Amino acid sequence: MGKTVHTEAVRDLFEAILTLETEEECFNFFEDVCTVNELLSIAQRFAVAKMLKEDNTYLEVAEKTGASTATISRVNRSLNYGKDGYELVFSRMNLDKEKKDSE
């Protein structure tokens, strides 16, 4: 049986994250919780996902983000066969952007 992320500790972490209200609060919390390298790695994966979603090639993604082909492949697998978490976030970010643009 594989590892699960559905633990009480992870639920507590997500509950804490859901209390954050501003970008500054996010910076402060994540800088306390993560090492600089952990946070930069997560941000890099998100940037890779955005670029892949925009139909950039692996080479373009690697050049722009500095991510390895293994990381790019892992993110691509999540985009194609994952739990649609990236898709949910991207669609909400697009809705927020459209809302701001129309104001």
TrEMBL record:
<dbReference type="InterPro" id="IPR000831">
    <property type="entry name" value="Trp_repress"/>
</dbReference>
<dbReference type="GO" id="GO:0003700">
    <property type="term" value="F:DNA-binding transcription factor activity"/>
</dbReference>
<dbReference type="InterPro" id="IPR010921">
    <property type="entry name" value="Trp_repressor/repl_initiator"/>
</dbReference>
<dbReference type="InterPro" id="IPR038116">
    <property type="entry name" value="TrpR-like_sf"/>
</dbReference>
<dbReference type="GO" id="GO:0043565">
    <property type="term" value="F:sequence-specific DNA binding"/>
</dbReference>
<protein>
    <submittedName>
        <fullName>TrpR YerC/YecD</fullName>
    </submittedName>
</protein>
<dbReference type="InterPro" id="IPR013368">
    <property type="entry name" value="YecD_YerC"/>
</dbReference>
<dbReference type="Pfam" id="PF01371">
    <property type="entry name" value="Trp_repressor"/>
</dbReference>
